[in-house]
Design brief:
Elements: H1 7-15, H2 32-35, E1 39-41, H3 44-53, H4 57-60, E2 63-65, H5 87-110
Parallel strand pairs: 1-2
Length: about 110
Amino acid sequence: VGDLPDRRMREHGAKRGYTINHIARQFNKATDFDAFDYIIVMDNDNYSEICAQAKNAEQRNKVVKMKDFFSQYKGEESVPDPYYGGAEDFEFALDLIEDGCEGILNWLADI
């Protein structure tokens, strides 16, 4: 939190044409539930942690798992953190994120 993403993720993203230069921040339960229509999480731990911070069902229903938008990787349960892995783990994480983002765009186009 407060740092750039891992150098390896930035390098793998750059190979796909992405500029990954954002600074991460913690989820802010005081503002984020009201500020965002949807909160998309990468894994089950994030899902549990964010849902536990919700005050009510309306806030909880805003929390959605990225895996719910996978079309090519329907069997995957999450976007695994590639930090302790090799190049193939970073590539796989990006594959999942791209698949999920495509699914999100298709879903938003339908609502």
